[in-house]
Amino acid sequence: MHEAPTLDQIQRAPKVLLHDHLDGGLRPATVLELAEQTGYDELPESDVAGMATWFAAAGAGSLEEYLRRFSHTVGVMQTADAISRVAAECAEDLAADGVVYAEVRYAPELSTQGGLSLEAVVEAILDGFRSGTARAAQAGRRIRMGLLLCAMRQETRAMEIAELVVRYRDSGVVGFDIAGPEAGFPPTRFLDSFEYLRRANCHFTIHAGEGFGLPSIWEAIQWCGAARLGHGVRIVDDIDVAEDGTAKLGRLASFVRDRRIPLEMCPTSNVHTGTVGSLAEHPIGLLRRLYFRVTVNTDNRLISQTSMTEEFGRLADEFGYDFDDMQWFTVNAMKSAFIPFDQRLALINEVIKPGYAALRSETLFGPVARLNGQSTSGMAGTTSHDHAKGEIQ
Ligand SMILES: [Zn+2]
Question: Could you list which residues have their CB under 5 Å from ion ligand 1?
């Protein structure tokens, strides 16, 4: 058993992020500046501290209250320049947080209020990812970014978005998702889009089992063919845990575990939306113990005031997770990414495993090894370029 990792070590550890919304992770100062530049005059506050507090969803308590906060981030993301800036800062912020691979998602239809086409929105994001990745590299941090395109469940543009996924799949778009309210908008509503993507050999994940229970998860997997589940926390409704801790899995929970279907869990966000009562009650503890393919994610960094480092720090405090657990979650996420298998493997073997090995030796051998650990950890941040060269990194 290793010592508990410090926040500084967690920050330096290589991390992989599969579930993060572009419009949920803006810098508060950027929201204000973009509002001024784009003539958006609906912001409820006029200074950075005020905006940061307003966005903080700690007391939101419901998904609706949580989602209300997005009107202003989306409000300032209506020009190509604004969208590119947000995407570039996203890549930079994630790299600074020690994320080595990220799939960030956005619904392009949200940014068409000012007349932008869906294509222009996608291209602005990919542009931003390129420049943010380049700026991070200049600062000595290597990150590879992939884009997931979301369709909004309450709207009707899913097929158009699915077609964009196919069109941009060699330019940095790695998959598809549906987002928005789960209750009343089941995944099967978009069955034709999912079938189209399957025929085109495209990857997709589906938000399911957050605001709604097992039927949503079942439809996402067994009707639509989702490769991963966004959240999926309610899968615990299909697991009975006896007083002695032994667990009995129902057929759906068994299927999800046996087929190694990745769960994109977002612990802090789930507490803020009221999906779970507290971090201590979060099913991630049970699901990790039962060896579901669990991954750790941020969901909305601005609105949940979180980061990958924060998420792992809170989980380490609550569940006693150490570097072995962190590496397990991280390798799970990398295995579940939507980029080609050889590239996933290269990141696991050349970046993730060496990064954790360095952190472990630092903890075991103290300050002398710590110097080595830092240089090795620095190396971990710079070895990913070979396989990321020439792509949206
Ligand atoms: Zn989400």
Answer: 299
